[in-house]
Amino acid sequence: MKKTGFFRTISAVLLTASLFAVVFSSVGCSKKESRVVPVLMMHDMNDSGDTWSISEDGFRRIVGLLDKNGFTPVSVDDLVSFVERNGTLPEKPVVLTFDDGYYSNYELLFPIVKELGIPVSVFVKGATIRVEGEDTPANKLLKMSFEEIKELNSSPFVSVYSHTYALHGPNTSYGPDERDSALPLEGESEASYKEIFARDCERAEECLSRAGIKEFTAFSYPDGKSCEWAEDVLSERGYKVSFTTDYSRDNVLTQGDLSSLRMLGRMNVNDDTTEEQLLRYLDRYNP
Ligand SMILES: [Zn+2]
User: 10 Å Cβ neighbour count for 75?
Assistant: First the structure.
């Protein structure tokens, strides 16, 4: 387990109180503790003001609002440790995620999280990782290189995970028909889908390995489009956590229940996200 930092130190203090409460309330019985965990989703970091981007100031503002309202950023590993009873969570945890592997995550986000000492999780698409010195279409997408991903993941504040190799439109079919993100094609058999999805996972894992990543703990579904067949494959391959973009989903994590780490919902946040909108989402999670 890695990912420690300033916020975790604060968490430890906060946790002491909640832990005592749990221990004392469960003397004589094996009470399962649950936590509800909001997850925020971001992508590129820039000043464009579009739906799927957030500026540096916008990100700092969101982090400030979380802090102001008592929420503590935690890592994916923290979620797993809690459910596996190897660790605890603060009273009001929140997970910060970034999808697609944009270069801005390295150039702009990385210095901020190091400065603030907060954990973030980054999900990269293997097929568009930039290869230095190559003039490929992937290189024009302003994504991170293998070296940059490696540096990012070696920090105690950033964990990098899979966002598929290429099951992320367009051209996601691995065949003649256009696939809707990582979903099965119409009429596709379970066996055929699982074979293709597993092959894509394998290629994504090869890419992450090339960036020095050894543990494939988490996965985020392109466009948040999840399915049970994919879940079966992820589970077989040892993935413990998966993320969708289902804003309405309540992420209730229960100790001892590994299925509670599956298909967690997320809220997209950007420069237009108001404090009121953020709190409307977070308030569902207030204990
Ligand atoms: Zn994506």
Answer: 28
